[in-house]
Each structure stands twice: as C-alpha cells, then as structure tokens.
Amino acid sequence: MSTDTANTADVRRPDWITEELLGELVSRVPSSTGASWKLTEVYTGEVLVALPQSSPADVERAAAEGRAAQRKWAATPLPERLAVFKRAHELILRNQHKIADLIQAESGKARRIAFEEVCDPPMVISHYLKRAPKLLKDKVRPGMMPLLSSSIERHPPRGLIGVIAPWNFPFATGLSDAIPALMAGNAVLLKPDNKTALSPLFGISLLEEAGLPKGLFQVVCGEGPDVGPTLMDSVDYAMFTGSTATGRVIGEQAGRNLIGACLELGGKNPMIVLDDADIDETVGGSMFAVFGNTGQICMHIERIYIPEAMYDEFRDKFVAAVESMRIEAAYAFGPDLGALVSPDHLARVQSHVDDAVAKGATVLTGGKARPDIGPTFFEPTILEGTTKEMLHGVTETFGPVVSLHRYSTLEEAIELANDTEYGLNASVWTTNFKRAQAVAARIESGNVNINDGLATAYASKSTPSGGMKQSGVGARHGDQGLLKYTETQNVATLKKQVMGPQGKQSFDDYAKQMQTSLRWMRKLRIR
Ligand code: NAD
Fold first, then answer.
1. Is the torsion defined by CA of 378, 380, 385, 388 positive or negative?
2. Would you state the pLDDT for residue 131?
3. What angle do CA 25, 28, 30 make, to 5 degrees?
4. H or E segment at 401?
5. What is the CATH number of domain 55-265?
6. Candidate of 37, 113, 235, 243 to mutate for ligand 1, largest count of ligand atoms within 8 Å of Cβ
7. Contact 246 CB / ligand 1 (< 6 Å)
8. What is the mean pLDDT of the chain?
9. Where does the source fall among the domains of life (predicted)?
C-alpha cells in the first residue's frame, strides 16, 4: 500500500486558515454561557478553534431573529430572491479551493472528494434557479363548478426551517438542503456537527456576500441532545440528515409538535455484479463506490454480490487495485484516500473489522489503523466470509470496509441485496441495460445506480432522492425537494352562490340534478 509522504509532521495547513479567520468564522455562533468545544484539524489532531456552544436560550433567540428576517424575505419578489443565488453560484465556484481547504481541515477527507463536495451546492442552485419559478408560481386549477368556480394552488413558505447536518459532507448538507428552503422564502436555523462547523459557516458568509439578508440564515452549535430538542420546538419543519437512530428521535419530536420532517438516514448498500458485467470496469467503479470519502458516504457500497463464476477474478483484481491506492494526508489532489473523521469513528470501524474476524471472516487486504500517516487513518479493507451474525454484516460500518459474497442465481442475489432493514442505495453492474432496469425494479432501495456506485443518482438533481425502509422519510432534490419547504394553500372562489336547492326547489330535485350533472361532467371529462 503506497503511503508516499506518510508523515503527520509534513502536513502543511494552508496559510490562509489563520487564527483570525477562524475566530471571525465562529463568531457567528451564539453562546451566552461562553461554553466552547475544541474543533480539531483531523490530519494532525491539533486544535484549530474553540467553537462556541449554544444554550437552549441561544437557540430560542436565534430562532426569533431568523423569524424576524423571514417576514421581509418572504415579501421580497422571487426574482430578487433568486438573484442572490445566481451570485452565490459564482462565489462558491470562485472560492472552491478555500472551501475545500476548510472541509479537509475539519473532516480529513481527500482533496478530490472535498472538491466534489464543493460542487454540490452550485448544482442544487442551478437546478432550482430553473425550477423554482414554476414550482412557486400560483397555479389556477379547475374549480368545483365549471365557469362558476375556480381554485388556486399556492405555496407560501413554512417560516423557519431547521436543518440538522452530519459531519460527512458538512458543506453540502449544511448548504444544499438550506438553499431550496431559502429560495422558497423561509429562514433557516442550521445545526452542523461540532466537528465540521467551519465549512458551512464559511458558506453562509458567501451567501451573505451574494446578498442574502443578514439574520436569515442562523447557526447554532452544540451536541445534538443539548440543542436538538429546543431547535425542534422552535422550527416549522425539520430537515435532518444523519443516523437512523437519531432520525427516530427527530421523527418523534416532529410528530409531537405536528410539524413535517424529512429524514435522510443510514444505509447498508449492496452492489450486484451481473454475469454479463465488464469485470475491469466494475472493479474500477467499485473503488469510488466503496472507498469514496474513506467510506463515509451514506450511499457508499458495503456489500458486493458477485456470480460464482466471476468471483475469483473479481476478487483478485479488486484486491490488487485497492493495494495500489495512495493514502496520504495532503491539502492537494493526489491521494485516493483520506482520514476517518475522528478517533471515535476510527474505533467504531476497527471494532467492526475485529468483530468480523473474531467471528470467522477473512481480511483480504487492509484491516488496520495507520497512525504512521495520521491519528485517524485506516487502511482500505476487503473482507470475505462475513455473515449476519457480525456487526459489519448487518449494521452500517461507515468506513473503508466492504465484504465480498458469491451468488449462484440472480434470484438469490436480489434476495440477499434486499435482506436488510435499510434501503438507501444499490448499484447494479451489467452490459445489458434492459436487464439492469428489471433488477432495479426489484431492489428495495430509494436510489439504484446502474454501472455506477452512487454519484449518478445523487447528482441527478431533477429526481427526488431519499431512502426506503429504515433509511428515511421524504426526499431531497426534485420538485419535492423544494415544495416540502412550503405550505399548500387552496384558495377557492365561487362567483355566484349556486350550492344547495335554488329558490323553491326541493332537496329531492336538487339531489337528482346533482346526480345528473355529476354523470355528465364525468362523461364530458369536465371534472
Ligand atoms: P448522527 O445522527 O449522530 O448526527 C447527525 C446530526 O444530528 C449531528 O449534527 C448531530 O449533532 C445531530 N444530533 C445528534 N443527536 C441529536 C438530537 N437528539 N437532536 C438533534 N440533533 C441531534 O449522525 P452522524 O454520525 O453525524 O452521521 C453519519 C450518519 O449519517 C450515517 O448513518 C450516514 O449514513 C448518515 N447520512 C445519511 C445521509 C443521507 O442522505 N441519507 C447523508 C449523510 C449521512
């Protein structure tokens, strides 16, 4: 395994990330108690900045400030609101290297995935700049009585949207889910993960530079259980991305408060290699599908099902490819694999591998931490012989670990792929697209990527993307990715009061007349 400049001491943090800049970034986070959290640089373990921790009272104040700013924003004409995001699109792209630096400093990911993360909000902006005018326009619908009545479907903003984001894509989940909410006329109250608050804070400063009114995008920081309940009591809708366990807590609070929630949760994502797949292409695609973001992608692949006859060739080529990966701590393109986000997460990944080995699995490559590269580096790991008795067999490892499985019939492969409580993403590899569609239709998963691991579905911003089963409720992207942040209002007008018996008409006659008119309207397809 290549480790080139594999020495923590060699990692040079970009010069522009100064103490002064970091202090200015975190000054946006309210903390009336003065409590703080040590936010560290993952590659070195050095403290970067003391991140203020918000109390429940701070959360309430931030919510009130957001609500005050929202009233004016909602009254701002849509073209003016959208113009802010046109400018933000360019500002984000212009600052891509700075944003990638911050993402890398706080998460330890490789540069190439940090760069891809930077591209997500501009893609979302671009999509909704096109769609928002159509989605938010009042729509005149046929009324109850042709000519005499009409109905208008309206989509006013909900008010204040709570966005709770995880650490694995802090800039993308902090901003991309907030953008359609803001476009729709809402204010946003964001709670990023403590570990990764810097890149979303920088992103918000760019949105404000693009013209977003001050106060509209609020941020609070703290441990989830400390600030979460007050946040959930303060907002009109919750957009949550994180683990299934926390998603349940958020869902319960949303239910109690009778507010809507979109829950984007965990996965245990399978890949099925069909017997007509091109092995070299599949091995190449599996590298990103499994190890992208060091395996810390909700949609990454943790299980690969391979036909018996292709198994040995696939395994040998995959192991060889993985052993040539470049693992390194560097604020530059080059390394294939970065670090895990924290020592705690490293311990979780290691425990899944150790548990699998103790219960009989074989490590084909990897399996160990690499403290020689940095405090939280872990080797890309391929397992064989895992079962559902093992942690890795049933729960999300969320690290650079995958298990290979043989199958003899396609029926068996589909059954094994579906044998999980999750349903977030699946990948199917084949040279026969018709066959792929038939397999996709039988997989219980909110996203299915054909001849790709995950990016093709996630980057299709026109199509809603969410989880089935325990992987989530609701979706981001597509029309519902914006409309979920709006109320639906039905404004119906009756030009003349014609309901009920007219004049001396008996109710019997009125009922007959209604019956006839309903039949005719059905025949003439009027309603
Ligand atoms: P997590 O659930 O521990 O935390 C997510 C966020 O919720 C963090 O900001 C955390 O501070 C906050 N939180 C925790 N408890 C809370 C509470 N009681 N109230 C309010 N907020 C609370 O998840 P994580 O470990 O940070 O992220 C990894 C998980 O996220 C994985 O399971 C991954 O699959 C999932 N994920 C899903 C998607 C998706 O789109 N489906 C995307 C990214 C990550």
1. positive
2. 98
3. 135
4. strand 401-407
5. 3.40.605.10
6. 243
7. yes
8. 96
9. Bacteria
CB-based contact 63:40 (threshold 8 Å):
no
Q: How far is 226 from 224, CA to CA, in rounded Å? A: 5
If DSSP states are collapsed to H, E and C, what string results for 286-338?
A: HHHHHHHHHHCCCCCEEEEEEEHHHHHHHHHHHHHHHHCCEECCCCCCCCCEC
Tell me the C-alpha distance between 23 and 50, whole Å.
Answer: 8
| Cα–Cα dist 122/461, whole Å | 11
Q: Is the CB of 292 under 6 A from ligand 1?
A: no
CATH 3.40.50.740 is held by the domain 269-461: no
Q: Is the dihedral of CA 155, 159, 165, 170 positive or negative?
A: positive
Contact 197, 26 (CB under 8 A): yes
By C-alpha distance, which of 245, 262, 244 is closest to 254? 262
CA torsion, ordered 101, 102, 104, 108, to nearest 10 deg: 150
Note if 264 is an active site residue.
yes
Span from the CA of 434 to the centroid of ligand 1 (angstroms): 36
- Tens of pLDDT, residue by residue over 280-315, are 999 999 999 999 999 999 999 999 999 999 999 999
Measured in whole angstroms, the distance separating CA 326 from the mean position of its chain's CA atoms is 27
Rounded to the nearest 10 degrees, the angle between the axes of helix 224-234 and helix 56-74 is: 40
Residue closest via CA to ligand 1's atom 26 equals 166
* Ligand 1 site, residue 234, Cβ cutoff 6 A: no
Cβ–ligand 1 distance for 171 under 6 Å, the answer no
The CA 37 to ligand 1 mean position distance, Å, reads 18
Write down the domain spans for the chain. 55-265, 269-461, 500-527
Q: Is a pLDDT exceeding 60 seen at residue 228?
A: yes
Which ligand 1 atom is the nearest neighbour of the CA of 231?
Answer: 20
> What distances in angstroms separate CA 335 from CA 11, 142, 328, 373, one per listed residue?
13, 58, 6, 12
Q: Given 116, 117, 264, 328, which residue is catalytic?
A: 264
Strands 237-241 and 468-469: unpaired
**For the sheet containing 472-473, what is the strand order?**
217-219, 187-191, 160-164, 237-241, 260-264, 472-473
pLDDT on residue 526: 81
Q: What is the pLDDT of residues 375-425, one digit of tens each?
A: 999 999 999 999 999 999 999 999 999 999 999 999 999 999 999 999 999
Structure confidence at residue 432 (pLDDT): 98
CA 168–ligand 1 middle distance (angstroms)? 9
